[in-house]
Each structure stands twice: as structure tokens, then as C-alpha cells.
Amino acid sequence: HSLVSSLSGESGLPANLRLPPNLIGAPREKRAPPTTSDLPVLRKCEADIPAHRTPTRTWLESLISRDSEHLGVVDLHPDVFSVPVRLDILHAVEVWQRNFKRISHAKVKTRAEVSGGGRKPWRQKGSGRARHGSIRSPLWRGGGIAHGPRGPTSYYYMLPMKVRVQGLKIALTSKLTQDYLHIVDSLEIPTPDAHYLQDLMKHRQWGDSVLIVDVGEEFPQNILQATASLKTVNIIPAIGLNVHSMLKHESLVLTLEAVKFLEKKLLWHDCRFTPLYPFKLPYSDLP
């Protein structure tokens, strides 16, 4: 008990593990949950919620002003934004995404590809030396390599669909639990100046990196110009949202349309079934 109490705060850490004062920022204040809010519920879940579960609620914000004024409350589906967090699934999906496009170009020559070595170096018997048939054998210096890399080698493998879908749900749940998930009504900002977006991020304590997600590939012109010069602020369509991008950025900003799109897509996988016909045939059961 004394060991746990001594290491509970930074003062109890060893001297070599303590951070210098200039690297310790101000503590981040979490927003109060909208459990007892008088603001109206501006968005309800379209999908059915099981009787034993309740919708997860969070605030609805706007980007029109720098101040974080809450417009209302948003209901989120608990099967998407309130699932058990499993770090092993997050790690499996992250490793899969990193290896998805990984290709190793390492390649060495075999004894057949090394030039020379066509003549037998000495006769088979009578010389007292070991028998050899070529100076390009793997036994010789400058010879070929046996069982070496023969690139290009792909590290691609397919992760089960249920694991990939669960990884997205866990990442969304983690962002919401840590108060790094922000729901906005739209991506409209009053000015294309990047300093406005930086001040907004600093004032609302969004962190140093932000990932903005909306439905479609066309975004408001002001938000595009404001994020063009910011390396740590990225905009992607909801169809391209992935675990790696969510873990790479500190805060995640979703529009109401993006929330609707993600819930529809991810909840469909909970009740999907293996089709009885080939995938090459047209089918209409996808959302």
C-alpha cells in the first residue's frame, strides 16, 4: 500500500523519471457529461436500441465562434459509441493497417544468378581438398545466398471483418470516453484564416492534432483553406475513417451527418449474414 501511495503522484516518481517543469502543461479540463442538462436533444438515434440499454449522450457544438457554446445534446447509439474497450483488438487492427501496404524489396542472388562459377575449381579426387563444383556455391565467399530474401515480398493479410468493425467501434468509444470526441452541426467557419482554427483548438482544449470527418468529399471552402497550412489538422470523408487515423490524432470531430453515416454502416455489420450466392453477382442487401 505504501508503494502504491508513493507512486500515485509525480512527486513519488524517481528523479530520473520526472519531467522537467517546462514540459508539463496545464491539466486538461474535461467537459461535464450532459446527464442533467436543460438543453434540448437535437438528435436521436434512428436505429433501434435494445431495451436494456440507454443511448449515450454528448454535447453538440458549433464552429461559428471560438467559445465552446453547447447548442444542445446528441444521442449516440450505445452499440457504436459505448462498447467494451479491448486494447488487443485495437492493436491487431493497427498492426494490420501498417502491414496492409508494406512491401519488402530485399532481394539477394542465388548461386544461379551470380556471374561466373561455371568451371569446376579442381578435380573431384586426389587434391586433398574438399570437393566443390563451383566457386559461386553458398559455401564460397562471393557466392550465392541460400534461403535469402527474394523480394518484393508483400506482408498483406486479411483481418476478419468483425475484428475490423469492432476496432472502429472501440476507437470511437475511447475518444468519447476520454472526451476527445466532438460533434458539430456543420464545418462552416466564419473565416478561412488558419489562426482562427488554431485559437479555437487552443480555447476548447482539443489538443495539438485534430481529425475532422464529414460525409462526402466536398467540404466548405473556408475549412479547406484554414486546414491547408496546418500539418496536424486533417479532413477526411466518413467512408475513409479508420483506426490508425483516429489513434494518430488527439481529437476527433464528427458532423451530425457523419455520425448518422457511421452508425448506419457499423450497425449493419452486427446483423449481417453470409450470402448464399457469389459476391460477383449484384446484391441489394448492403446499406
UniProtKB/TrEMBL annotation:
<feature type="region of interest" description="Disordered">
    <location>
        <begin position="18"/>
        <end position="38"/>
    </location>
</feature>
<dbReference type="GO" id="GO:0005840">
    <property type="term" value="C:ribosome"/>
</dbReference>
<dbReference type="GO" id="GO:0005743">
    <property type="term" value="C:mitochondrial inner membrane"/>
</dbReference>
<dbReference type="InterPro" id="IPR002136">
    <property type="entry name" value="Ribosomal_uL4"/>
</dbReference>
<keyword id="KW-0689">Ribosomal protein</keyword>
<dbReference type="GO" id="GO:1990904">
    <property type="term" value="C:ribonucleoprotein complex"/>
</dbReference>
<protein>
    <recommendedName>
        <fullName>Large ribosomal subunit protein uL4m</fullName>
    </recommendedName>
</protein>
<dbReference type="Pfam" id="PF00573">
    <property type="entry name" value="Ribosomal_L4"/>
</dbReference>
<feature type="compositionally biased region" description="Basic residues">
    <location>
        <begin position="120"/>
        <end position="133"/>
    </location>
</feature>
<keyword id="KW-0687">Ribonucleoprotein</keyword>
<comment type="similarity">
    <text>Belongs to the universal ribosomal protein uL4 family.</text>
</comment>
<dbReference type="GO" id="GO:0003735">
    <property type="term" value="F:structural constituent of ribosome"/>
</dbReference>
<keyword id="KW-0496">Mitochondrion</keyword>
<dbReference type="InterPro" id="IPR023574">
    <property type="entry name" value="Ribosomal_uL4_dom_sf"/>
</dbReference>
<dbReference type="GO" id="GO:0006412">
    <property type="term" value="P:translation"/>
</dbReference>
<dbReference type="InterPro" id="IPR013005">
    <property type="entry name" value="Ribosomal_uL4-like"/>
</dbReference>
<feature type="region of interest" description="Disordered">
    <location>
        <begin position="111"/>
        <end position="133"/>
    </location>
</feature>
